[in-house]
Structure formats: structure tokens, C-alpha cells
Specification:
Helix content: under 10%
Distance between the termini: 29 Å
Structural class: mainly beta
Low-confidence stretches: 77-83
Strand content: over 45%
Number of helices: 0
Largest sheet: 7 strands, antiparallel
Length: about 150
């Protein structure tokens, strides 16, 4: 991971070696208690994040962030969605503020949005015991509050 931090913001670049995960084994009710092994075919990925911030005065700091994460699965020829991690690339947006209440107490709050890119799913695992077909997309909205003392 490369991370650059200075007075005006943060920049992070990560390289994740998902290809080192050769296979996943799962035993569940859906497979009648039998162990299902899935070759992952994960690819290595890059993730980037940039987050500028502005110090308004000694008490208030505003910040924002944008991040992009590649999915480790090669869509549409990927590992089973039942046994897989994220199926699509993700975009994340964050806006927030930090209030320095006292020298030793700060309050941080904000809003985050994660958007999963559209992707199709056509996959099976366990010699056809588990199959999935369809399309996927989605968003996650998050409000957060943190007190640091």
C-alpha cells in the first residue's frame, strides 16, 4: 500500500493479491452437509482513494473522499457468487466534518455512499448443486458519528 498524507488531504493506492486464494471450501445446509470446493480464479486488484480536507478554524475541519475498488472476481466468468466476495467494482463517496470540542475530545460525523457497479451473475458451484443467474447492483447509505477522547 502506498499512502500519501499531507496538510490538504490523503491519497492511497493499494494492490491486493487475491490470486493467492486458490479455492474456497464451504459446508452448508444448501449442499446437504457436503463440502463444496470452488476454484476462485480471483484476479489481483487495485484500489485508489483520495480525500481532501479543509481546516476552517481550530475547531472545525471538513473532509470528503472518493474511492474506487476493483472486484477480485473476473465478471462474468467468476467464482460462484455464493462463495465469492464482491461481484462488482465499487465506488465510494464520503462527506463529513470533525469538531474539536476540547483539546482532548473531538466529534466526527458524516455521510457515506457506496455504489456497486452493475454486473451479471451466471455461475454454479459444487457440480451444479448451487447455481445463480441474474443481475446485481446496489447502494449502501451510511451515517456515522464518532467521539474520540
Amino acid at each position: 500500500m502506498i499512502s500519501i498524507i499531507n496538510g490538504g488531504g490523503d491519497l492511497t493506492l493499494e494492490y491486493e493479491q487475491w490470486s493467492k486464494i486458490q479455492s474456497i471450501q464451504v459446508m452448508s445446509v444448501a449442499t446437504l452437509g457436503r463440502k463444496v470446493s470452488q476454484i476462485t480464479n480471483y484476479r489481483d486488484t487495485w484500489n485508489i482513494a483520495i480525500g481532501p480536507h479543509v481546516q476552517l478554524n481550530p475547531q472545525w475541519r471538513l473532509y470528503g473522499a472518493f474511492a474506487f475498488s476493483q472486484a477480485p472476481a473476473d465478471i462474468p466468468n467468476h467464482a460462484s457468487p455464493v462463495l465469492s466476495l464482491s461481484e462488482g467494482d465499487e465506488y465510494q463517496y464520503v462527506l463529513g466534518a470533525n469538531y474539536q470540542y476540547r483539546k482532548d475530545v473531538s466529534l466526527k460525523f458524516g455521510y457515506g455512499l457506496t455504489v456497486a457497479a452493475d454486473h451479471s451473475i451466471h455461475s454454479s458451484a459444487g457440480n451444479g448443486l448451487i447455481t445463480a443467474n441474474g443481475n446485481g447492483k446496489g447502494t449502501i447509505n451510511a451515517l456515522f458519528f464518532q467521539v474520540t477522547a
